[in-house]
Structures are given as C-alpha cells and as structure tokens.
Design goal:
single chain; 67 residues; four-stranded antiparallel β-sheet; 2 helices; 30% helix; globular
Length: 67
C-alpha cells in the first residue's frame, strides 16, 4: 500500500492507476481517493517498490510505502 500525495481531483486517481499499471509486473492497482492510497498487487520478481514509487512520482504524485 502506498500513501499518495497531490490527489486533489477526480481525475487524479485515474492518472495514478495508469502510471502504476505501466510498471512491468503490476497485475492490479486499486486507488482510494478518500484515503489517498494505492493498493498495488505486483510480482516482486519483476517490480520493486522503488519502481512503483518512481512511477507515481514521475506522474506528479509522490508516494511512500504505508507503514
């Protein structure tokens, strides 16, 4: 689960979802606009959490792993 910053409009979750789904190894990305989170299902052999964070950050939505 990632905590995602800068999601302020209805289109933001769509952009975050698309950026995560472009990462190789990601099978599903569920965005919760109200909680500002992204729950990502991915193959750890194909994708690292750092690449997920980079994908959202490059799209304008910095994120961190939820602790």
């Amino acid at each position: 689960v990632l905590d995602v910053q800068n999601m302020t409009c209805g289109l933001c979750p769509v952009t975050v979802k698309k950026s995560l789904e472009k990462v190789s190894g990601v099978s599903e990305a569920k965005i919760d606009f109200g909680r500002k989170t992204a729950t990502v299902t991915f193959d750890p052999d194909k994708a690292a959490t750092a690449s997920l964070i980079k994908a959202t950050t490059d799209a304008g939505f910095p994120s961190v792993i939820r602790k």
